[in-house]
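Run folding on both entries below.
>entry_1
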Amino acid sequence: MALAARQAMEPFAERVCRGNARTADDLYRFGYRVGETGTVVAAIEVPARLLEEAISSNLTSSCRLTPDGNLISESSFEYGNASAAMSIAPMPLDQLIRATLAPQNLHMEEATVSNLRTMLQRLEEATSVVRETLARYVQDEESK
């Protein structure tokens, strides 16, 4: 143990699956290990089912659109005194639309012509709102 104490320690979290298929016996292991060797120094195992239930019942997800057209997904988790928040890297709105309209995604979503027409209508309405807002901003700037 004295040797491990002098080496760099790192926290870890991993899923431990018993057997080939996911079962109720699966665990999540959290702890510290020696960075160079991977030797576990301290760990605690929590049944996956309990952890997943706690997370799913206390998880909040949201998305927001920035003024420059980036979509940001955010998730937060609170349980007792513990909390965590995570934000996914911004994705440009046009990139999200391209990904959504990729043939394999349209096939998986079983998209219909009606669905695509509805999307187009909503995007055109959104574009109109942006144009109106931009025109007001330009007008405000010119009047200053």
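>entry_2
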Amino acid sequence: MKRALVALLVVGSVACALLVARAGSAPDLTKGVGGIAAWLNDLTGECSEVRRDNDFTAFAGPVRAKVYEPFVAEWGTCVKEPYQRLGLIVLRPGVDEAWRKALARGEVRGDPDLAFGDGFALTGSIGMEHLGLKRLECTPDACSFVQIEHH
């Protein structure tokens, strides 16, 4: 069931009701990437079929895989526009610290290109603000999760 938030907007003397999709509850991670896909499907009507592959390095690239892979409990992909292969990743704790250390060693630049939830991540960036996900901002000294805001 899709969850929605009705917002009342008053413009001048006219009141308008806006229907806004919202994330609501979190995915059921006891079901692995299938739980993430079900959550996305519930919210968006997309991501109904999970594809699994064993080669995370081919999907993420060698640099990102080196940092992410020790923290990937399970991963798969699904189709969710505009992505033909949206990565769904169940995470073990520690990817933030691993990225910070890799940044300090000069192995990576910038911030991870994942949108983070509690115990999971998605590889996309477009529309992630509507799902209540966060981005990870890092310096060589510290990282922090920051709410993704609508632009």
